[in-house]
Amino acid sequence: MTTAEVFAPAKVNLTLHVTGRRSDGYHLLDSLVAFADVGDRLRLTPGPELSLAVSGLFAPGVPEDARNLVWRAAEGAGWTGQIALEKSLPHGAGIGGGSSDAAALLNAVTRQGGTFPDALPLSLGADVPVCMTAAATRMQGIGEEITAVALPRLPALLVNPGVEVPTGAVFSALASRDNPPMPAEVPLFDGIGDCAAWLEVQRNDLEPAAIQVAPQIDRVLSDLRGTRDALMARMSGSGSTCFALYPSMKAAHFAAYEIGAEHPEWWCVATELT
Question: Over the range 64-94, which residues count as b (16 or more CB within 10 Å of their CB) and which as e?
Fold first, then answer.
């Protein structure tokens, strides 16, 4: 490999239906996933030894050793060298920061002719295979069933109240693990409003449990739903990041100003989901 600079976009679960639990403890999911135009960045410089240096707004608390998913991805792919990771996404936030970082590294290895075991992405985490697509996708099973879907470009606002939510604690608080999946077919949407109306009647089954763990999520959702022109709002993943959809990027930026003025301590980013 030569030196590569790669982008690791935020993953947003537009829906997240928990449809069962396998005997080995893995949960079965049915989720519609899109990706933002905001994310982390990695600079990969080949060398004889593996090292990781983390910088950026959300660098504090991010491990720089084998506890980091991108380190484990590099080891699994047999890649060595220096990884410079710029963390622009909050961690423990339900938007796939670590998974997307790992996926970006694996994609870089593939683009430069490298290989790794087929089982590696899923072994790193349920979100890594879908993050390798970095495009609108339906994710089913335990993350291994990946189907491309067509979505309009969705103006959105991502908001995180600065609270890390452990995924294990959320699943432990889950009231029901056997819930209906999404409809068999994701329709072709006429536009943003049509898509938002369809999403509104879907679910994130982890949302009530996450609110028990971190009540601040309920405040974020309430504030998002109260912004001008908001079409719908929901939590992403296991939290604590939430999103709202808007008819235009202008409306999303205005909502970011509204919420940012009231809660300057929150991470608040207008983006476009694809």
Answer: eeeebbbbbbbebbebebebebbbbbbbbbb
